[in-house]
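[C-ALPHA CELLS]
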Amino acid sequence: MKLILSFAALLLGLSISLADDKPNVVIVMTDDQGYGDLSCHGNPDFKTPNLDRLHSESIRFTDFHVDPTCAPTRAALITGRYSLSTGVWHTIAGRHFLHPEEVTLANVFKDSGYATGMFGKWHLGDNYPCRPHDRGFDVALYHGGGGVGQTPDLWGNDYFDDRYFLNGLPKQTKGYCTNAFFDEAMSFMRSQKDGPFFCYLMPNAPHGPYFVDPKYSQPFVEMGFSQNRADYYGMLVNFDENMGRLEEFLQDEGLRENTIFIFMTDNGTAGPWYPKEGEDFTAGLRGIKGSIYEGGHRVPFFVRWPQGGVGGGKDVAHSAAHIDVLPTLMELCGVERASGPPLHGRSLVSLLKNPGEAWVDRILVVNNQRIPVPEKYKDFVVIDGSYRLVGRTELYELNTDRGQEANVITSNPDKARELLEAYERWWDQVAVRNNTLVPITVGSMNQANPTFLTAHDWHADKIPWHQDVVKEAPLFNGPWEIKVAENARYRITLMERPPGAIHAINAAKAILEVGGQKLETEIAEGAKSVSFELELGAGEGQLLTTFVSENGDERGAYYVFVFRMD
C-alpha cells in the first residue's frame, strides 16, 4: 500500500494516504439471478455460502432496481444514465448497441489512471464502435451476443472449453465458462495488483441454456427437481463456488482491504425461462425476468470496502438503482467524468458511510420496451418510496403489500396522478434517441476491417438470435444499419453459417443490396460462401442480403463479412 506515515501520525495510530492510493474496484454481476436466488434472501432450495458471507460483510441495499432484462441494465449501469437515453432498450435487432456518445465507467476509470478489464457478458454491441475494448476497457474477454451460443458467439460454444473474444480476436479457454471468466479476471487483477484497477466481471451464468457439470446439478435431481431446474440451481452453486475462489484470491494477493467490491444481478430470476417451468422463489416479490412488477427489477446490491469503512452487514432501505453506481464510484474513488451527456444517477456514498442517515427518496422509473421503436406508456413502473405505479391503472403500497396483490389506485387517485406526471417528465427527458439507429461501422482500416455481421443484429421483427435457430434455416430476413467509413472498394461475402461451421449454402441465387446498388449471382452447388465486389461511398445506409432457393423460398444470409480491399 502506498502510504506516507508521518511521525505524528504514527503516534496517533493514523495513516495518511497518498492521492494516488486509490481503491481498486470489482463489480460482479450475474445474468438472470433474481432477488430470491440466494440463501441469505431466504431461498430454501439451495445454499450460497460465499454470497451469504459477502452479504454479512456488506452494506446491502434492499430496494435496489435495474431494468427487467439484461442489455438495458448493462447500458444504465455502465453509463449512469437511463437505458432508453443510451440507445439500448432491447436485447437483439440492433437495439442493444450503446450509442458512441455515451461515456462508460471504463472510460472514466481509464482516464483517471486505472487499468480496466472486463470478463464475461458484454451485450452492448459486437462490432465497432460498440465493443468493450472500444469503450474504455484495456482488456476484454467476452462471448458474443447476449449469451453463449447465440448467433454472434463463436460457432459451437457450449459453456465448456469455449473460445471467446479477447479484444475482438478468438482465444481458447479451458474449463467451464464461469470458471474461465473468473480465472481471466483474477489473472488480470494479479497483473495489475500494484493498482489501481477496475475489474468488470460479468459471468453469463445462470442464463440459459442451462449447461453445467452434473456434479453441480445431480444433487438437485436427487432432491426431486426437474433436470432443467437442477441445472439452473447447479449453475448458481458453481457461481457461488467461484465467488469463494475470488474472495480467497483477493485475500492472498493483499487486495481485499482496499478493493471496493460490488455484487448485483441484472434482472429478476429467469425462472427458468428455458423452458419456463416450475415455481420460483422470489422472496415474496411479484414477477420474474421481463416483468415490471417488483420481482422483475428489484435485485441484490451488496457493497464492501473494508479500508474505506463500507460494510458491516447493514441494510439500506431507501430506493436506489443501477444509474447510481457510476456517480457513487466516482465519489468513492475521487475520479472525474470530464465529458458526456448528463448523468441520471445519484451518489450513494452518504448512505454507504451512514446507512441510517436521513435521505430524501427520488422518484425512479423502470420500463421494458423490447420493440423497434419505444412507445410511451408501454410497460413502465414509477417508484416513489414504498409506492409503485404500474402502468396507468395499478398502484401498490409495498410496506403493507409486498406481493403487489391489492391495487389501491381508486383510493389514492392523487398519488397515482402525481406519479404519472413524474413519468411524463421522465419520458420527455430520456426518450431522445427513440428514432436513432446506431450503425455498425465498416471499412475502418484501424478498427473494423473486416467487419463480421450476424443476423442477431438485423433490424427486423423476426431474428435468428441463436445458433440453434440458424441451424433451422428459417425464412427470415432483415437489413443491417451500417456506416461506410470511407469511399473504397469492398468485398462482401455472404454465408449461411460462419466459416467454422463448414456448411454449404442451401440456395441457388444470392442478392446483395447496399449503397443504392443491387447485385445478383448464382451460387455454385456445395459453395460455403458467395462474394460480391463493388465500390461503396462513405456514409450511413442499410445492407440487405437474400438467398433464393430453387423453389423460390427467400431468407437472408445469417452471416456476412465486409472487407475493405484498398
